[in-house]
């Protein structure tokens, strides 16, 4: 039971990284923009967050720095694809490659750096409950922030006028423009907000999840977060559920090794990516279902006045 509780706790922790990044990408795609640069943004944000925490000792400032780094890179991406009408997919891939190379170059001096000792987190009384305490109530506050962000995004998208406008821009930017909404500015704000969340996820990785800096430490989490939006059919609650599912698959490799299961470590390492491919293949078998849930204008440029 204790081992199972620890596996659940580790799955929630790992899933939080994917959930926060995927929610950011979901905001982008609800506005009609596909950003393939999540991996690069998360790497730069991870470096920014780690550098700030190593310098100041403040995790909060590290999170802020990561969000700022993600937002700035996303703003550059947004200006290119929204105003200069560059190809969204090519620009996103370029951003991902840039982020990987730049973070590796700029982070050389931080490879051996160490962060201050972190405090242990636990919710009073609830953390003392057998099994549930270890599984659910001894996490870093950011785990609960991920759940709150999901609930907040559901409320924003489906219960507010601003959320309705955002979804209308993703469904039919021409109609939104005809009604007088500034489609380009709305898309840019969505891209920046999504980049900030990807940055927060990246900073969480380097300052809390694995408190160190090494080149390429995001290790494909940006791509899995991107796949999660399709897996979840662009629904925030399903994003959170899918993130925890993939987090569990990621942690399962360590759990199996811990209980002595004789499986090659390379096979266990590839499980999260194998699960991603399998899920996307299964979803792709029903393209009509995807079309019903997918924002109609996703990935399509918008030219005012055309």
Automatic annotation (TrEMBL):
InterPro entries: ABC_transp_permease (IPR001851). Pfam families: BPD_transp_2. Keywords: Cell membrane, Membrane, Transmembrane, Transmembrane helix. CDD domains: TM_PBP1_transp_TpRbsC_like. The keyword Disulfide bond does not apply. The chain crosses the membrane at residues 6-26, 33-54, 60-84, 91-111, 141-158, 188-206, 212-232, 239-259, 265-284. It is a multi-pass membrane protein. It is found in: Cell membrane. This is ABC transporter permease. It comes from Hydrogenophaga atypica.
